[in-house]
Structures are given as C-alpha cells and as structure tokens.
Amino acid sequence: MASNTGTMANLPRGIGICTTIPDIFYLPELIFGGLVWILVACTLVVPANPQAWVMFVSLFCFIMTFSWMVVFACDGHHNSSSWAAADFAYHGIAAFFYLSAAVTLAKVTLDYNDGTLSKNYKLDISAVVFSYVATLLYFIHTILSAIRWKSF
Question: Given 66, 94, 107, 108, which is the most exposed site by the fewest CB atoms within 10 A?
C-alpha cells in the first residue's frame, strides 16, 4: 500500500486521511462540531430560531464531514480534480455556515446573560468557543483544499 504523504495533489486513500494535509483536519472537525451539537442540545433553547440554525449547521456539517471522510477512507473516489474541487467547495460552505452559526450563537449567548453564571450560560459559552474552533478548522481545511485543487 503506497502512502500519499509525499505530494499535495493526491487525494487520500484509506488510512491516508489520518496522515495527509489537509485531511488530517477531519477528526478535529468531527470532534469540535460534535461538541457544539451536544452542548447546544443540552441547553435551554431560548430563543429557538437562532439555536435551530446552530443545530442545523452542526448536525449537517457533522454528517457531511463523516460521510466525506468515509468516502475517502473506503477509496470511493477517483484521484481527479473534480473530487478535489468538491472537497474545496464543501469545506468552504461548511466554514461559511459555521461562521454564521458561531456569530449567531455568540449573539444569543450575550443576550441570554442575566448576570449570573448559570449552567445553561456556561454551556452556551463553551458551545460558542467550540463553534469558533470548528470554524477555524474548516477555514484552514478550505485553504489547504484549495491549494491541493489548484495543484492538480
């Protein structure tokens, strides 16, 4: 089994998703995205509408990132520029979605602050921090995917 760690133009295959750049970001994206999803689900959902957007983004990105990772891990793709472009496009959309969700969640959390450090407020603060970390991870993955796509 050949390793794909040498060049940026190759798409990962199998365990290569854990060793190649930018694909090494899949697991941290799943971890931090899952934490956002869990923390928002654990809190009192007030107001419901902005929190629903955050839940949609975190669930959508978690499911799509996991599916994308499985496609690469099971060698369900072809080493072509169209897959590299799709990887770039997905991570760009995910970064944009997470940024919008993080800003929304931060605004709702600031509005919810009643001066006490309640359990829900602490969970919301944690969700805000993790959503910004997830945004950063998706953004870095987007830049590195663009570099890989352009090197095809």
Answer: 107
* Domains identified in the chain, total number: 1
As a whole number of angstroms, the distance between CA 16 and CA 119 comes to: 41
Report yes or no: 147 and 8 within 8 Å, Cβ to Cβ: yes
Tokens representing 133? 């970390």
**Torsion over CA: 107, 113, 119, 122 (sign):** positive
Domain hosting 69: range is 18-150
Asked if the structure places residue 140 within a domain, the reply is yes
CA-wise closest residue to 151 among 10, 11, 9: 9
Give the up-direction half-sphere exposure of residue 80: CA atoms within 13 A in the CB hemisphere. Answer: 6
- Enter the pTM of the model: 0.84
Any idea what the Cα angle at residue 9 is, between residues 6 and 11, rounded to 5°?
90
What digits encode the pLDDT tens for the residues 36-53? 989 888 877 666 667 888
Q: Residues 135, 137, 140, 146: is their CA dihedral positive or negative? A: negative
pLDDT tens digits, one per residue of 24-40: 888 899 999 999 989 88
